[in-house]
Amino acid sequence: MANPLLTVVIPVYNAAHFLPEAVESIRRQEYEPLEIIVVDDGSTDNCAEVAAGLGSNVRYARQENAGPAAARNHGLSLTSGEFISFLDADDLWPRHKLSIQMARLLAEPELDFVLGRTQYHVLPGGKIPDLPFEGPENIVTHTVVGSGVYRRQVFDRIGVFEESLRFGEDTDWFMRALEDNVEMRILRPTTLLYRMHGKNMTQDRKAMSHQIMVVLQRSMERRRQRGGAVSPLRPWLSYDEWAPGTRALVSAIIPTYNAEHFVDDAVRSALGQTYRPVEILVVDDGSTDKTVEKVREFGPRLRLLRQYHAGAGAARNLGVMHATGRYIAFLDADDIWTPTKLFRQMEILQEDPTCDLLFGHVQHFRETSGESGGPAPGYLPGTMLAKRELFDKTGPLVTDLKAGEFIDWYARAMEAGLRSRLEPEVWLRRRVHGANLTARERIAWGDYLRVVKAAMDRRRHGESEGG
Fold it and tell me: Is the bond into 132 cis (omega within 30 degrees of 0)?
């Protein structure tokens, strides 16, 4: 399945020394095909020379100095991609930005664009701005053009950037998008590294404040012209919200390790769910076979994350960390979901909002003979559906167990007062084969005993603290 082309526009003005790092951060993305367009906004440094040395997939265009809005618009006029993104020359992208955001846009075709959170970094001469950061890492949720990926058609609908604005042109565009009720989301992951170096245009706080007032006044005037009064704007939805009346996104996390013979079936069972939208993250735990190649054949609907071999617990944790959905579901690479699994689970959770963890039944089948056993209760990761926020309350899965990491997590969830529910419906078909009946089961008992001992120790500690 061919990935859609994504075009990245880089406006640059006298920032040639930053340009190679910006382009390299784009090339590190685990997404192809990419088209990169550098628009030189009348620079007086060696921008043209630096751009010429960046490789054949970087196009260079020059204009007389007219500001970042005009440079972005010039770039837009040259684009070929179905999807568009922007990166200022002095900023960087985190490694997984495009795989995260493209998977979300493809999972939810109704979305016009998605943003992410922005992390501020200080370079010599710069300082951290006074913003309502969400913790010690200088991360904030707000609208920055470089944090997003956009469908090309949204610019046909909203228009391009206002070139009369030297500051706040991105805020003006976002305001027009709000007024037109576009569909967008701000995702949990950080998708832009904003670098402060003393020469940022945003350092001119007086000019910025004046232009923002101009942008707000223009928005009020447009809304007044439409309705005779200033109508309120619909708020944008962040990663911990979803639109009333719409379906919440489910992040399906599939950890894999040397699963080339099974992973196709697992992925197809996730893609074949009757519930939409579903985001699918495959976390490869250092496979040495052709698992990764098999996964890549599915194209951009799957997000592929890779780690050194560290076990299923670490793989699930990495998937949860990168998930953008409101709900989390796990699926082992050698198992299969029944087609209505997520649909039925979402129905039940909507009917019973007090339920935190929802499980179903499992049916085992033999790989060689195809024989199936009867349904059995399945307090297993493959039958579970849980809200993303529960992993913040309970903590990650332990990573020092070769088996039993999910039992340990479930025990901690119950100790934290979370409510689980078991349904009689079969939601998981669990494959029985040599690899999961021999070596794994022999080492499991020792890990299970460690899990039980850890739970007893926590209980004793809690009782002693309670007096």
Answer: no
Inter-axis angle of helices 169-179 and 68-78, nearest 10? 60
State CA 446 to chain mean position distance.
Answer: 36
pLDDT score, position 374: 80
Q: Which residue has the tokens 């009369």?
A: 164
Q: How far apart are CA 215 and CA 217, in angstroms?
A: 5
Q: Is the predicted pLDDT of residue 244 greater than 70, yes or no?
A: no
Query: pLDDT higher for 83 or 459?
Result: 83
CA-closest candidate to residue 75, choices 99, 58, 90: 58
Nearest by Cα to 105 from 367, 300, 365: 300
440, 418, 272: which is closest to 357 by C-alpha? 418
Provide the greatest CA pair distance for the chain.
75
Q: What's the CATH superfamily of 6-227?
A: Spore Coat Polysaccharide Biosynthesis Protein SpsA; Chain A (3.90.550.10)
Q: Tokens 């992973």 identify what position?
A: 263
In the chain, what is the straight-line distance between the N-terminal and C-terminal CA atoms, in Å?
A: 62
Candidates 146, 241, 139; CA nearest to 184 is 241
Residue scoring higher pLDDT (309 or 203): 309
Q: What residue segments make up the domains of the chain, in order of their start?
A: 6-227, 250-465
Cα distance between residue 330 and residue 94, in whole Å: 25
pLDDT at 221: 75
Pairing of strands 335-337, 420-432: antiparallel
Q: Which residues on adjacent β-strands are paired with residue 428?
A: 337, 362
DSSP 293: H
Report pLDDT for 437. Answer: 42
Helix H or strand E segment including 120: strand 113-122
Q: What is the mean pLDDT of residues 226-249?
A: 65
DSSP letter at 237 equals B
User: Which residue, among 454, 441, 464, 326, has the nearest Cα to 390 in the 3D structure?
Assistant: 326
* Whether residue 308 has pLDDT greater than 70: yes
Tokens of 111: 């979305």
393: tokens are 């309350």
At residue 303's C-alpha, the angle toward residues 390 and 383, to 5°, is: 45
Task: Give the residue-averaged pLDDT of 322-351.
Answer: 95
CATH of the domain spanning 250-465: 3.90.550.10
Distance CA 428, CA 270 (A): 11
The b-or-e profile of 29-68 (16+ CB within 10 A means b, else e) is bbbeebbbbbbbbebeeebeebbeebeeebbbeeeeeebb
Which residues neighbour 292 within 8 Å (Cβ) at sequence distance 6 or greater?
284, 304, 306
pTM of the model: 0.78
Q: Is 250-465 in the same CATH topology as 6-227?
A: yes
